[in-house]
Design goal:
The protein is α/β, with parallel strands linked by helices. Helices cover about 30% and strands about 20% of the residues. Strand 7, helix 2 and strand 8 form a beta-alpha-beta unit. Bound molecules: flavin mononucleotide.
Length: about 350
């Protein structure tokens, strides 16, 4: 049987599959269908300092090939999360990731400080797609300096493992990845939803109350894969891929481009039992391919041609993301065949 456990910074995951924020409750609501021990980790919905009612309906709609949502970070706030959710989540035999969101730099740090003493929390995931109300309402995720300021504040406030969750809605995601790495992030989640819009020509109304929203599901996989690859080749910290993942093959594709783990979001709505099956499906694929460990696939991308230049001036080389065992075994590296 192939080994599925992977190293994510200082944390060992039993397998590389996590739920994606906002698509799986806080994780335990689904335990009768997905026993927590079958996934590498559970990611909470975004938790904010104060309760948020979220946006008015319609705030989710289906499109031809995915979901559009503008939930507006509905949640009951950090007090409720710590008092009610965490004691329950603490019983789960898997890694617990708490996703935090805020509209001000200092609020992110305050949330991180509150959660620092909570032993049930293994990892903090910082949702940088929240609007920055201090500075023009654009999301933190669109400005390297603002994203870095958030991560620096969180880093100072906690000794927990910190993942920075990036947005695909930028022209150079590698710049964002480098900024959050320099600010002290232990890892990157790539990516959140793609900005999109739906309209009904008969009623002339948008599909969402907020007009535009976050697009997710199968259709965004190529975008997410490209973003994850750009991040993985730009930084040394581990990358968790997210976006459009539905099958075990999808998971392996994200690992080949350099991710050490993945998150599954929209696919849970169509198939609530998916996360309970994916690990076994991964094992079968790896056994069929004669691979002893899933880690051997990480960063094993073989390019047809030299990679396009990265955003930093003067650098176009890709890093060797393979584990030492994969290198020794001669598994091909990203860029090595160029
Ligand atoms: C209904 C819904 C709610 C979401 N809520 C959050 C959230 O609260 N925080 C967050 O960081 N991402 C949130 N996301 C984004 C997902 O975590 C994920 O990054 C994105 O959907 C891409 O993955 P997917 O294509 O597998 O769904 C949400 C996505 C959906 C569809």
């Amino acid at each position: 049987m192939a080994r599925l456990d992977v190293q994510l910074g200082p944390i060992r995951l039993s397998n590389p599959i996590l739920s994606a924020s906002g698509t799986f409750g806080h994780g335990l609501e689904m335990r009768h269908i997905v026993p927590p021990g079958l996934v590498g980790g559970l990611v909470s919905k975004t938790v904010t300092l104060r309760p948020r009612p979220g946006n008015p309906a319609p705030r989710i709609c289906e499109t031809e090939a995915g979901f559009l949502n503008s939930i507006g970070l509905e949640n009951k706030g950090i007090d409720h999360y710590v008092r009610v959710v965490l004691p329950e989540v603490a019983t789960a035999d898997t890694i617990i990731v708490t996703n935090i969101g805020a509209e001000r730099v200092d609020e992110f740090a305050e949330l991180a400080a509150r959660l620092d003493s909570e032993s049930a929390v293994d990892v903090l995931e910082v949702n940088l797609s929240c609007p920055n109300v201090q500075d023009g309402k654009l999301p933190f995720s669109t400005d390297p300096a603002m994203a870095a300021a958030v991560i620096r504040g969180v880093r100072r406030a906690t000794s927990k493992v910190v993942l920075a969750k990036l947005s695909p809605n930028v022209s150079r995601i590698s710049e964002m990845a480098i900024a959050v790495e320099s600010a002290g992030a232990d890892g990157i989640t790539a990516v959140n939803t793609v900005l999109g819009m739906k309209v009904d020509w008969r009623t002339r109304k948008p599909g969402l109350w907020t007009t535009q929203g976050g697009y997710s599901g199968t259709a965004i996989k190529p975008i997410a894969l490209r973003c994850a690859w750009e991040c993985a080749r730009s930084v040394k910290i581990p990358v968790v891929g997210c976006g459009g993942i539905v099958t075990a093959s999808d998971v392996l594709e994200f690992l080949v481009v350099g991710c050490r783990a993945v998150q599954v979001g929209t696919a849970n709505f169509g198939d609530p039992g998916l996360l309970a099956r994916l690990a076994a499906e991964l094992e079968a694929l790896l056994d069929g391919a004669g691979l002893a460990s899933i880690e051997d696939l990480i960063g094993s991308l073989e390019l047809h041609a030299p990679p396009p230049a990265r955003c930093e001036p003067g650098s176009s080389a890709t890093r060797d993301l393979r584990t030492p065992s994969a290198r020794d075994a001669g598994v091909a590296a990203g860029g090595a065949s160029a």
